């Protein structure tokens, strides 16, 4: 059957026109926000007041552009209490703030809308919708005065020392946190992604150039508020090296110090997902979301100990870092201007993990260990890793151990640059790689195939759906986040469909096993201009959650494109007027709809 035995029964919806400003769910389902941008988290937080937001009010409220999401039950509450974690990747100032607000207030309020949030939830019981609890004891905002500890072999390195922090071990803040993962020990990992856009860099070094740190006049202007974001000043020297890491947060301990793990390397981390190998070592997979960048994995030195959270929280501080090399197994036939088709009819082959670090030492000729970890992209370049089509979320199927890599798109790849693992020129729709480690998850060898080559099969001959008849599936484009339900179906959320298939971004279920392998069914679509982030599929509880990011982002303060999720009357925003609010939403069958 569809969805290979999932309890979550639904009839897939059709694609939704890219102008629709609604959340679209299957027949019989409802949706409702859990928490919205601006909702007050603490007893003394200011109420959301869109015309009068301040850095101080925003610091006590849920941030903007929620991306990674998880909802973890608080043990012993019989499903009635949970803790929600969300990232706030970036801000859309033009639709958030009135034009009368001063440039400095805009910048400082936008900074406070970045970072992370932890919020407690409550409900009547399993299968029921949640509400957030204002003033709950686990509620926390992570802002630019929050201190992070750098861990691992590069912590304390000269490359991480700044004027304000000569120890090279303490960073203030996190930014552009995109996807993430929840560890088996109950902490959250969050990827610092396009951190480069926040730094002023007038005279980039080769290393800075490789990370896109090249803007002498960044439009966000944070360097005008804090001199550490100006890398041309003594205060800014090396500050850029302190972003681009995987952050680990313990949402159950509101006084804990969050950490940035240097052992996992520095790049534009989409996120990180951890699995436990048979050997007990933990393995973390991470994509570097840039055209022609790489797929990485980290294998811990220590072993997982069930129930020992304190020990398990040390596992990401020591271990070996690898980068992926893919090889096709069949001569590729060049398709004129379009890319390649494999002569054996399948996009597949083998690969290996190139070792960048070993036992705290560099494996890269000419680079020291701290250089490999701080300038990981340059290390991977030297070692000849495979250039991928923007690897975003990477996640392990908990039932099969297979690894799924969302390559979202790469419109810059030429036909001559196409290979079997990235087979399309001008790859605007993206694809999904299915990777099987050889033996243990910590292995250095793997085999792979492309599960999906995305697109609209009606107009795109290269679209491929795991062998499933292409005329019987929903078009899908720009896969970004991946997730699994309890029976091992893959769920994919998208980022960019309005620009490629003229449909709102959406969430899909893909059957992986059995005769319906490759069947793509659409579960929901987000409103106009929005991206579907952070999907959480709790099929056993009948609940699906997404973070609706940047709704109406192409509008302006005066002419908003979206009124999601409150749908207040249109018109100039005011205390009563409508504007879009990025929100976490819940979808479920039942009467208590929005
Ligand atoms: Fe922030 Fe790679 O998406
Ligand atoms: Ca092949
Ligand atoms: Ca993403
Ligand atoms: Ca994306």
UniProtKB/TrEMBL annotation:
SUPFAM superfamilies per UniProt: NHL repeat (SSF101898)
Residue runs in coiled coils: none
Keyword Signal (UniProt): yes
Keyword Signal: yes
Protein origin, superkingdom: Bacteria
Record keywords, A-Z: Signal
UniProt xrefs under InterPro entries: PhoX (IPR008557)
PANTHER family to which the protein is assigned, alphabetical: DUF839 DOMAIN-CONTAINING PROTEIN (PTHR35399:SF2), SLR8030 PROTEIN (PTHR35399)
Name of the featured protein: Phosphatase
Source organism (scientific name): Arthrobacter mangrovi
């Amino acid at each position: 059957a569809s969805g290979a035995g999932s309890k979550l029964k639904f009839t897939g919806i059709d694609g939704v026109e890219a102008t629709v400003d609604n959340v679209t769910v299957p027949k019989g389902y409802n949706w409702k926000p859990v928490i919205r941008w601006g909702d007050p988290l603490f007893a003394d937080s200011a109420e959301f007041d869109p015309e009068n937001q301040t850095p101080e009010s925003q610091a006590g409220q849920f941030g903007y552009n929620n991306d990674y999401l998880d909802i973890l039950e608080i043990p012993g509450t019989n499903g009635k209490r949970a803790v929600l974690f969300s990232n706030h990747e970036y801000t859309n100032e033009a639709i958030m703030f009135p034009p009368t607000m001063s440039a400095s207030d805009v910048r400082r309020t936008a900074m406070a809308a970045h970072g992370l949030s932890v919020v407690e939830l409550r409900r009547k019981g399993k299968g029921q919708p949640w509400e957030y609890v204002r003033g709950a004891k686990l509620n926390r905002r992570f802002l630019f005065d929050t201190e992070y500890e750098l861990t691992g072999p590069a912590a304390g390195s000269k490359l991480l020392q700044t004027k304000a922090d000569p120890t090279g071990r303490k960073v203030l803040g996190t930014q552009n946190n995109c996807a993430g993962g929840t560890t088996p020990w109950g902490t959250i990992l969050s990827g610092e992604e396009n951190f480069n856009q926040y730094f002023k860099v007038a005279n980039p070094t080769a290393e800075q150039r490789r990370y896109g740190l090249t803007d002498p006049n960044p439009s966000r202007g944070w360097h005008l508020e804090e001199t550490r974001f100006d890398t041309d000043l003594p205060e800014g020297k090396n500050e850029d090296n302190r972003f681009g890491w995987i952050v680990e947060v313990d949402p159950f301990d509101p006084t804990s110090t969050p950490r940035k793990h240097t052992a996992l390397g520095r790049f534009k981390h989409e996120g990180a997902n951890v699995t436990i190998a048979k050997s007990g070592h933990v393995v973390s997979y991470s994509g570097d979301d840039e055209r022609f960048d790489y797929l990485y994995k980290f294998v811990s030195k220590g072993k997982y100990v069930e129930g020992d959270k304190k020990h398990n929280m040390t596992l990401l501080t020591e271990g070996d870092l690898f980068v992926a090399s893919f090889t096709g197994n069949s001569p590729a036939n060049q398709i004129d201007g379009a890319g390649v088709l494999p002569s054996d009819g399948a996009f597949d082959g083998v690969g290996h993990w190139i070792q960048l670090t070993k036992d705290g030492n560099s494996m890269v000729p000419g680079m020291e260990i701290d250089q490999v970890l701080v300038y990981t992209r340059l290390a991977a370049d030297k070692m000849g890793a495979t250039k991928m089509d923007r690897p975003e979320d990477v996640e392990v199927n908990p039932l099969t151990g297979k690894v799924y890599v969302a390559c979202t798109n790469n419109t810059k790849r030429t036909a001559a640059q196409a290979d079997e693992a990235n087979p399309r020129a001008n790859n605007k729709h993206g694809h999904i790689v299915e990777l099987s480690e050889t033996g243990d998850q910590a292995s250095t060898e793997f085999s792979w195939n492309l599960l999906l080559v995305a697109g609209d099969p009606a107009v795109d001959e290269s679209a491929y759906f795991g062998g499933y008849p292409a005329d019987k599936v929903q078009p899908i484009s720009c896969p970004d986040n991946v997730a699994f339900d309890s029976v091992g179906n893959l769920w994919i959320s998208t980022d960019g469909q309005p620009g490629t298939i003229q449909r709102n971004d959406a969430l899909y279920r893909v059957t992986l096993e059995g005769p319906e392998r490759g069947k793509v069914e659409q579960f929901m679509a987000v409103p106009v201009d929005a991206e579907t982030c952070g999907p959480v599929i709790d099929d056993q509880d009948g609940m699906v959650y997404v973070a609706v990011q940047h709704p109406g982002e192409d509008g302006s303060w005066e002419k908003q494109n979206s009124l999601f999720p409150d749908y207040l009357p249109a018109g100039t925003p005011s205390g009563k007027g409508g504007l879009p609010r990025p929100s976490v939403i819940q979808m479920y069958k039942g009467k208590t709809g929005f």
